[in-house]
Design brief:
The chain has 368 residues and is α/β, with parallel strands linked by helices. 39% of the residues lie in helices and 18% in strands. A 7-stranded mixed beta sheet has the order 1-3-2-4-11-5-12, with helices on both faces. A 5-stranded mixed beta sheet has the order 8-7-9-6-10, sandwiched between helices. α2 packs across α11 and α8 packs across α12.
């Protein structure tokens, strides 16, 4: 199999079924499409002659930049008379499929789906154009069954989906403990249970799993059910930083409409600055958009710790994406991928320079 065809057979099948959860993100297979909920300012002009820019994201707190940017109107303001239209997703492959088909132009997505989408298309379908979030992933366990890290051996631990970002992270961590786990079946010295984030709390309450390596807010939902945080993934990374959410764009849209892409990146940078300056308002804004998207807001006991554990940043932390790809290879989920050209940070660095902020690096994986 060529190096650029990274997913092994079963993972490729999963991706073809629009499932491979992203990362840190939510899970399922359908997108919910909606129009912009912000008014277009009077006298505003269209960007690049576009009637609309279609933005995709997950209904997860790790996509907080998109949630807040939408709810506060940052995207619509930056796009002027070009409408910001939105689609929410539950799975990485379905968002990649939407990007490939033109159903969305730009999306917030986790590292594993971005890597898989890029390599499966031989580097022709997307570019990562910015970062959005770091952190927000934890191993939460039943304290009556697991009291230390070594107690995880022999237990049933949930991850969001086969081959997703947290699945890769947990398999890599288990390997580093000296345990053997079959990446395909999830069986071995520890049993990996691939469980939709929506049902994982119920599985925990029912006792069918002993813990879970999951993103926020699922981790905090488990804590609210009596679980204990045994490990925060931040502690496994240099400086406690690792990419959990990227911004991607179709290469065609990037070539044809750079001004529109720049406008969305400008809005993203402004949103992250507003989040940092207004943490409580931003948390409430993200929860309000989650409620609008899903019909249900998060309770304070889940929202507060979950929001606190996520860092919203502009840097895509490119070196950690490369490391995550290496973890997937080591776990047996990927053939060695060719990630050359996966990043194009030109417009982001232009926006950052205009805002008086430092440039970000592509770790040598930028488009030539």
């Amino acid at each position: 199999m060529p190096a650029t065809s990274v997913l092994r057979r079963s993972l490729a099948v999963a991706a073809a079924l629009p499932l491979l959860t992203l990362a840190a993100c939510g899970y399922g297979s359908e997108a919910k499409e909606e129009g912009a909920n912000q008014e277009v300012a009077a006298g505003a002009k269209k960007i690049d002659g576009l009637d609309a820019v279609k933005i995709g994201y997950f209904g997860n707190l790790t996509h907080g930049t998109a949630l807040v940017g939408r709810e506060q109107g940052f995207f619509q303001k930056a796009l002027g008379a070009t409408k910001a239209e939105y689609a929410t997703f539950n799975a990485g492959p379905s968002e990649i499929e939407a990007l490939n088909s033109g159903s969305i132009d730009i999306g917030w997505i986790g590292p594993s789906p971005a890597i898989n989408g890029y390599t499966k298309s031989a580097g022709k379908n997307l570019r990562i154009i910015g970062g959005s979030a770091s952190g927000g992933v934890k191993l939460v366990v039943n304290p009556a069954k697991i009291k230390s890290l070594k107690d995880v051996k022999g237990k049933r631990i949930a991850t969001p989906q086969h081959g997703n970002t947290q699945d890769v992270a947990f398999l890599n961590w288990a390997t580093e403990q000296g345990w053997k786990v079959d990446a395909e079946s999830g069986k071995g010295d520890v049993t990996v249970v691939r469980s939709d984030n929506k049902v994982t709390p119920d599985a925990y309450k029912a006792g069918s799993i002993d813990g879970a390596w999951v993103p926020e807010p699922t981790a905090s939902k488990l804590v609210a059910e009596g679980g204990k945080v045994l490990l925060d993934e931040k502690t496994l990374w240099p400086d406690g930083k690792f990419v959990i959410t990227n911004i991607i764009v179709s290469q065609k849209f990037l070539r044809d409409h750079p001004k529109a892409v720049e406008a969305v990146l400008k809005a993203s940078v402004e949103t992250n600055a507003w989040i940092k300056a207004n943490p409580d308002k931003a948390k409430a804004s993200a929860n309000k958009q989650l409620e609008a998207d899903s019909g249900k807001a998060l309770p304070a006991e889940v929202l507060d710790p979950a929001w606190k554990s996520i860092d919203f940043i502009n840097d895509p932390l490119a070196s950690t994406l490369n490391t995550e790809a290496e973890h997937a290879v080591k776990a047996g989920l990927l053939d060695k991928p060719n990630l050359d050209g996966i990043y194009d940070l030109t417009l982001l660095n232009k926006v950052l320079a205009a805002a008086g902020e430092s440039r970000v690096d592509d770790a040598g994986l930028g488009a030539k």
